[in-house]
Known about the structure:
Elements (H helix, E strand, L loop, with lengths): L1 H23 L14 H6 L6 H30 L6 H16 L4 H21 L4 H9 L4 H12 L3 H23 L4 H23 L11 H10 L10
Amino acid sequence: MGMRTTTARMHTDVSSLLQLIWLASPALPIGGFSYSEGLESAIEHGWVHDEASAADWLADQLHLSQARGDLAVVAQALSAWPENATPAGVERLQALNDWVLSTRESFEMRLQTEQMGRSLLDWLRNQGTAPASALSLCSALPPTYPLVMALALSLARAPLEQALQAFAFGWAENMTQAAIKSVPLGQSAGQRILARLAHEIPQAVAHALQLPDDERQAFCPMLAIASARHETQYSRLFRS
């Protein structure tokens, strides 16, 4: 009996880990690879021009934008999704989704979160693991990427901190690939940037976990300016 219990527990742990790896992978078919989140514009204007400046830009974005905004939303939505069939749960998830939409400061930022949210929702439908009530709520919103990713992460049943680390690492890997393509940089430089971001992700996650609703924020003026300028940039590889 003890051996069977231990084996079952190990199977559950491995399954959760594999689901987190799956959700963090840039190969997830939700279109993340097509966005640079203003990085391409920063390169165009000379704010990012080499490995060091790319690493600094992305580290700043991790702490000033992701940790204070989307990571905090994902953390709070993860706690709310189990109650999605109750009026209080619906209200909470709708409020978090509305906050994400209202804090997107450019057309491209809003386009990204809506498109990736829809695509991830389609992926969840194909997986057949999400509750019907959750899928119905998402379809009615329309859903943003952080909200749907929180649903996907909740289904993995992994510890909250690990779920947020997976979300942050998926973002970091996508952004590093964007830097490699557009600065451009070599693969070794990209790995050094990713190593720095991975080292700083636990701090960003810890910050996100301690933020109440009234301390979430999306105040990153330079990022918003870069995103807005990208909309009329002459030559572009990315959608943002």
